[in-house]
Specification:
seven-stranded mixed sheet; Rossmann fold; globular
C-alpha cells in the first residue's frame, strides 16, 4: 500500500523542507511532496482555517513519476479530501473519504473569501458526484453533503481508536504522571486538540470557566493541551500547554475530559480517545456527534453553558466518575476498534470498486 501526503504539518515546520519517501511498516510506504511552495502556502493561509484547496492542481504539475505510476497501476485510489480531485480524476476506481462537509463548514465559519469558498464548493461538488465510492464519518455529514451537492449513494463508516494502545493508567502510572507535571490534589479537567477553529473556540470556553472559579474550593485545574494554542499560558486554575510531544502523560494525570466544541464538521477523534482511556467525559451534543453514546450512561452530555455544573457534579461524585469511565471504555472497545472499521471499509471497496459481492 502506498500512502501519499501533500505539504507539511505544523510540528514539521523547520524539520522537513524537501520531499521524502519513508517506510512506515513493511507493507506501507509514505511519499510526501514538500517544497518551499508548501511553506509559503501555509503562511499565506495562516490561522484562517482555509484548507489547501489548490493541492490537486499543484499535484498535476509537480507529482513524481512514481506517484503517477502508482495511481495509474493501483486497483483503488483513495483520497482523503476533495481538494485532490483534479489530480485523481483520471484514475479509477476512486474512493473519496469525506472527513467533513467542507464547503458547508467554510461557509458557516466564514473561512476565506467568497471566491475561495466558491472554488472549494465546486471542487467538493465534483468529488462528490464523480467518485466511485464515498465514505463519510458521520450520518450528519452524509446528510449535509447530500443537501449541499445532491443525492447519491454514500456510506457511513465511523472513526475508531487503538484500544490496545489507549489503556487506562494504573495507580502507579497516574501518580507518576501527576508528579511529573507538578500537580497536587486539584481536580484536573483536560481538553486536547490540534489547531482548528472550533477547537480554538473551545479553548476560550476553558479560559472563561477557569476565571469563574478563581479562589473557589475545591481546587480545579483546566488544562488545554496540544497545538490548538501556540504558546504555554498559566493563570489561576488554567494551564495551556502549547505543543507537546505526547498526550499520554496528560491522559494519565487527568480526572476527567471535556469536549466543548459547538461548531465544525466531521467526527471528533478526541472523544473516542478520552473514552478509550477510561476517563469520564463531559461533552456538548455537537461534540458527541457521530458517537452513539448515551447521556449519564457513557458520558455527561449537556449544553455548553451547563458544562461547569456537570464538572461540579463529577468533582463531587467519585463513583459517577468510575462508572462513566468504565462504560465509556467498554463502548469504544465494543464498537470503535480499528479492526472492525477496517473490515467494513474493505467490504465497501470490494463491492463498489473491485466487483465483489455484498455479504
Amino acid at each position: 500500500m502506498r500512502l501519499f501526503g501533500y505539504g507539511i504539518r505544523r510540528f514539521e515546520v523547520g524539520r522537513r523542507l524537501r520531499s521524502f519517501v519513508r517506510t512506515i511498516e513493511p507493507r506501507l510506504v509514505e511519499e510526501r511532496l514538500v517544497s518551499w511552495r508548501n511553506v509559503l502556502d501555509y503562511v499565506r493561509r495562516g490561522r484562517s482555517g482555509l484548507p489547501p484547496v489548490d493541492a490537486g492542481a499543484v499535484l498535476r504539475q509537480r507529482a513524481s513519476d512514481a506517484l503517477r505510476r502508482a495511481c495509474k497501476d493501483a486497483d483503488v485510489v483513495q483520497y482523503e479530501c476533495p481538494w485532490l480531485w483534479p489530480f485523481v480524476a483520471g484514475s479509477a476506481p476512486r474512493v473519496l473519504i469525506a472527513h467533513n462537509a467542507e464547503s458547508l463548514m467554510l461557509r458557516q465559519l466564514a473561512i476565506g473569501t467568497s471566491r475561495e469558498r466558491a472554488a472549494a464548493a465546486a471542487l467538493e461538488q465534483r468529488a462528490w458526484e464523480e467518485a466511485d465510492l464515498v465514505i463519510c464519518f458521520t450520518e450528519e455529514d452524509r446528510a449535509a453533503l447530500r443537501d449541499e451537492h445532491g443525492d447519491r449513494d454514500a456510506h457511513v463508516v465511523p472513526l475508531g481508536v487503538d484500544c490496545e494502545q489507549l489503556q487506562p493508567p494504573d495507580p502507579d502510572e497516574r501518580a507518576t504522571a501527576r508528579a511529573r507535571l507538578g500537580l497536587g490534589d486539584e481536580f484536573v479537567v483536560l481538553f486536547c486538540g490540534a489547531w482548528h477553529l472550533p477547537n480554538r473556540a473551545a479553548s476560550d470556553a476553558m479560559r472563561s470557566w477557569a476565571r469563574a472559579r478563581v479562589d473557589r474550593d475545591p481546587p480545579r485545574l483546566h488544562v488545554v493541551a496540544g497545538t490548538v494554542c501556540r504558546k504555554r499560558e498559566a493563570a489561576s486554575g488554567l494551564l495551556v500547554t502549547g505543543p507537546i510531544p505526547e498526550m499520554r502523560t496528560w491522559f494519565a494525570a487527568a480526572d476527567c475530559c471535556v469536549n466543548p466544541v459547538v461548531t465544525g464538521s466531521g467526527a471528533n477523534v478526541k472523544i473516542l480517545e478520552y473514552l478509550a482511556m477510561g476517563l469520564p467525559v463531559v461533552s456538548t451534543p455537537f461534540g458527541a456527534r457521530g458517537v452513539a453514546i448515551e447521556d449519564r450512561r457513557h458520558a455527561l452530555i449537556c449544553d455548553l453553558d451547563d458544562i461547569p455544573e456537570a464538572l461540579d457534579e463529577l468533582q463531587r461524585n467519585a463513583d459517577l466518575c468510575c462508572d462513566l469511565g468504565r462504560a465509556g471504555r467498554q463502548f469504544v472497545c465494543t464498537h470503535r476498534t480499528w479492526s472492525a472499521i477496517a473490515a467494513r471499509r474493505r467490504e465497501l471497496i470490494d463491492v463498489h470498486c473491485l466487483g465483489g459481492a455484498a455479504s
